[in-house]
Write a structure and sequence with these properties.
The protein is mainly β and 234 residues long. It has no helices and 22 strands. The protein has a single domain, classed as Jelly Rolls (Sandwich), CATH 2.60.120.10. Helices cover 0% and strands 54% of the residues.
């Protein structure tokens, strides 16, 4: 079973310092179809203006993955970690039994665009943890960024999920093979145009698969896709 959610069907909000797009119900946006996709609870596409950000606030029992697309983001938390993440890096925070953190754009004259993703964990009340890692993409080759953990050499979360990125050149085809056949697949087009079957996918469109073993796509233009395998039951 395949469902497409177009970019313009997402929730949106403009707070002046923050422009946000919500793939799932969040803040004032509610969609009965999009409360969550299995264990995937949040996929926010945020633009934070220069020098602005989120003050210290709490989280618990949630896996939080942050992927900067443009600009830089400063992280600070109650565990004592203070860091700046940039494109080509990914940040993981397991909130566990509870923590506080803040996120700010350290550059006064440049906005930061980031994806923040929340996953329901498969273990509750664990010790909070923080991890940052860098990655490099190779054209037309899938790069796994996050897996179920802990796995040697791969950043991990407390959930049997996989996060991957793919840069696909125009005219190239790709088939995504599921790591676990019981998973659902959420594919989010960061940039570009893609064809799957007779459906055209554009920038910030998403496709959800719950009963199909793989997804075949063809890039109409140079494209970048985020793939999230999520357990449908956990």
């Amino acid at each position: 079973m395949m469902r497409i959610k177009r970019s313009e069907q997402r929730g949106s909000a403009d707070y002046g310092w923050l422009r946000a797009n919500y793939s799932f119900s969040f803040a004032q946006y509610y969609s009965s179809e999009d409360v969550h996709f299995g264990a995937l609870r949040v996929l926010n596409d945020d633009i934070v203006e220069g020098g602005m950000g989120f003050g210290m606030h709490p989280h618990d029992n949630m896996e939080i993955i942050t992927i900067p697309l443009q600009g830089r983001l400063r992280h600070k938390d109650s565990m004592g970690f203070e860091d700046i993440i940039s494109p080509g890096e990914i940040q993981i925070m397991s909130a566990g039994r509870g923590l506080m953190h803040s996120e700010h754009n350290p550059d006064p004259n440049e906005s930061v665009n980031l994806l923040q993703i929340w996953m329901f964990p498969n273990q509750k009340n664990v010790d909070p943890r923080y991890h940052k890692s860098s990655y490099q993409l190779e054209k037309n080759k899938l790069k796994i960024l996050v897996g179920p953990g802990p796995q040697e050499g791969l950043p991990w979360i407390y959930q049997s999920s996989y996060f991957s990125l793919l840069e696909l050149e125009a005219g190239k085809e790709f088939v995504y093979d599921m790591q676990l056949k019981s998973h659902g697949l959420y594919a989010f087009v960061i940039e570009g145009e893609l064809l799957t079957g007779d459906e055209m996918l554009h920038k910030r469109d998403a496709v959800m698969l719950t009963q199909q073993q793989d997804l075949q796509i063809k890039a109409v233009a140079d494209s970048k896709i985020l793939w999230i395998e999520s357990p449908l039951q956990w």
